[in-house]
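Known limitations

Files may contain more than one protein. Parsers should not assume a single record per file. Below, a two-record file is shown to illustrate correct handling: read the sequence, read the token line, then continue until end of file.
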Amino acid sequence: MTAPLIRSATKRQFLIQLGLDPSDDRTSQTYWLLKDEAIRAYEAQLQGRRDLLRPEYANQDPPYAAAHFSAAAFSSVVRSIYSTATPETRAYYNRGRTAQGDNWVISWMLYHVCRYRDGRNIRARSREFHADDDLDDSNGSGSSSSTASSTQTAGTFYDAARNVNRR
């Protein structure tokens, strides 16, 4: 187990806390495996689910921020991700288990998946949807990604959740 990291920590901080080298290509592959599991769980279990919101957000229209979901709903999805994890990702999830039964690794990833869909993130409304996925940060914080803008062509849109262009 590693010490918990706050959800708002940067991707770089997240990777270092897990003992991963942010400059290693294998780290990027591992990150996307973790993120893909969180994306699939979000889409299947949280996306558009008004019934899982905390009472004060019951009348909020989607998309929802992670904080809008009840603690029980968010924790349930975290447990679901852990229970369906691949052996490779479970090894990292095991590092995030806490004495209270939480999992900071999965919570961090799920929080960031929600963050890019909640409509408040300025980058989420631009072509730099997942700028935290860019590790070129000489000052220790995430920098803007140019992947979407440099590879997008007419008649396509950038699906940052899967890091691909779609028609």
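...continuing to the second record:
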Amino acid sequence: MTKPRRSVQFQHRGSNGHHGRRPSISETSEAVSEPGSPGPKMNGIGEASQEEREPPPQSDYDKKKQTFITRTIWTLVMIAGFFIAMFAGHIYVIGIVTAIQIVSFKEVIAIANVPSRAKNLPFTRSLNWYFLGMTMYFLYGESVIYYFKHIILVDRVLLPFATHHRFISFMLYVIGFVFFVGSLQKGHYRFQFTQFAWTHMAIGLINVEAHFIMNNIFEGMIWFFLPASLVITNDIFAYICGITFGRTQLIKLSPKKTVEGFVGAWILTIFFGYAMTNVLMRYQYFICPVNDLGANIFTGLHCDPNPVFLPQTYTIHLPLLLHQPPLTFSVAPMQFHILVFASFASLIAPFGGFFASGLKRTFKVKDFGESIPGHGGITDRMDCQFIMGFFAFMYYQSFIAVYRASVGGVIEMAVQGL
């Protein structure tokens, strides 16, 4: 006979009873978290809900505060790096200017680029950088040959490159031009010619003007530092005057710019320029042209100062009705020139920034890039500096430079006569 089965009960997962079965994960979490516990709410698989994982959105005040902190930190970093490079020597400042113009070129080219088109035209991007490299070769070569001709023209290896520098540069451009024409593809003509014109515009507005900034460094650190500091301080003064008593809008391209801030910054920049010039004229490291790229603030430079830095006596004849003797005073002519520099930095250089603002509005971008946290791109900070440096070089060569016979000049005349 078969034995009768015992009554065996199986616990089913679907039963509601809790006796004799393993508690589920959700029940365990509920047992641990008492009512009112601050622990996160858990869903059916033991994960925090989406609402609990996401951080609360930042308020406008917190965003502005974070942006201000980031902007301030990087401003101090840039100022410290600038002064360290300037005191370390001219070669380091030249390196900074070179890096700035390369990054600025990259940012300006990028805002007009169409990735979907560029992907099908692999040589377009290469040609952009080829024309940049060719331009820098030509411009840097011109500066090196002019300021160091006494070294270049007596070197057997460098002499052929120096005497035929412009022809070599022209042929390099012709090679790029022929390569561009050969790379034209049907259906992409408009894009390719737009990139060609955009590249030449960027080179003209950035690299050519940066070339003159480089020449300012060779002529003396003061011709680089003074224009740059005038633009920076004018921007700061315009901001302070604008938020203090600005009422009238200056230009539609920059709605926050005011006439009161514009004029107030002009006046304050003149005072700053006068005081800064009075300090810089005392140090030959700033006023001497570069004759040693290895010089720094500790080794210094030595030269016969330009007469513009030496005090001169001026006499003002008062009207005869006053019965007063002529008024005599001594001042360095540079103190008069600085009025022109400060006025250009205040009244004309800001239009370089307005031009950049219009360019960004055209392509519907806020900044040229993200090279500097809190500031945007390098171009956003240098838009006024390029035109200011260009002006400083032209003004210096026209009204201040003293042309003397030099060993390099004599050698150059001899080489050209061969």
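Parsers that stop after the first record will miss the second one. For reference, the second record is described as follows. The CA atoms of residues 58 and 164 lie 62 Å apart.
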